């Protein structure tokens, strides 16, 4: 049977493993037991030494690297990380998890990109680990963990306040009765059997709750508890004089791993992906519809043009122009980790266009700034902040078809429009033409000077 700590490192079993380790001193040393578990993992790729973590410290970084590459690298090879799914690695994995939480808590705190990545990676690891178990084993494990996480059989929905307010869990995913969340089958049958007609209540339970919702709740609770633990570490470290240098070193390495994944596979400044580089915006390459909104909307459709149309276009054109060819879902901080491009380049452009509307958009409707942030993925808040990222989705740019239906006055197609289906594809195509033209112009100028 797989250990509970392999799924929930914050369990009592997990804490016991950490207590047994004692001091941090050995976490940098090569560990033969760890290396032999890794190399003996069934499908593990061992053709390169760099695939094999040699210490707790290495293993912690491999956990983050696995998630960053799985998310961003189309050539991701899961065989390089097979050891992460070998239950024999449990003891080492738990220590690596605590090292990550402490390093991130001490250096970056709970509202950082590093914290978000660790919390998300823990959720994905659990999903993938559960996926490798038999149905029975998976069910027993999830039930055990849920029972230990839930304080009683009757759970008021307010118990999940943190999860719901951070949008990790959505109320509509759950079945509620008299303010209580129903997860248990017997409880469901007792409350609803007499109300269900024409279908077997057991089947209804499986369809509405079953293993799927129980797993979802368990995973989200472990993720929330991970975030809470990082917060506690951060608060505690504020009271301590000197953080452990190993944790600070690990925190720096975590950032390096994330940065490397952005630079190699992502679209941040200096990075690239697919054939379209992320670079400073060139308004000359904007399609006619975007140019029109940039001039300021003088008549109807002002809000939708700025919030629904321009905001996704400008943000993706600047940060992740290859979104449609790569088809990898990203958050803004994956490509703009400090949000400096958002603050210094993207928002000023959008606010400028809003200002030129008649009447200026945010002057008479300041609440629309909240909607704008929501479209960038930062939830319903006044300003984009890392701590709120993920509460909403970063909207991808509208297709030409949708523009023609919802904002028909914007679409004044030119020749390039015949070859594309989305204003972003127009921009990606045109940017090459504009670059070629300006190179040719410079060459002519040089010739004239000569
Ligand atoms: S065809 Fe598409 S890119 Fe061209 S103006 Fe219309 S909406 Fe914009």
UniProtKB/TrEMBL annotation:
Cofactor binding remark: Binds 1 [4Fe-4S] cluster.
Residues at which [4Fe-4S] cluster binds: 289, 400, 411, 417
Alphabetically ordered keywords of this record: 4Fe-4S, DNA replication, Iron, Iron-sulfur, Metal-binding, Primosome
Domain DNA primase large subunit C-terminal: 281-416
Gene Ontology MF terms: 4 iron, 4 sulfur cluster binding; DNA-directed RNA polymerase activity; metal ion binding
Cofactor(s) needed: [4Fe-4S] cluster
InterPro entries the record matches: DNA_primase_C, DNA_primase_lsu_PriL
CDD domains: PriL
GO biological process, one term: DNA replication, synthesis of primer
One term under GO cellular component: primosome complex
Assembly and interaction partners: Heterodimer of a small subunit (PriS) and a large subunit (PriL).
Cited HAMAP family: DNA_primase_lrg_arc
Family membership noted in the UniProt record: Belongs to the eukaryotic-type primase large subunit family.
Function: Regulatory subunit of DNA primase, an RNA polymerase that catalyzes the synthesis of short RNA molecules used as primers for DNA polymerase during DNA replication. Stabilizes and modulates the activity of the small subunit, increasing the rate of DNA synthesis, and conferring RNA synthesis capability. The DNA polymerase activity may enable DNA primase to also catalyze primer extension after primer synthesis. May also play a role in DNA repair.
Protein name, per record: DNA primase large subunit PriL
Source organism: Methanobacterium spitsbergense
Gene: priL
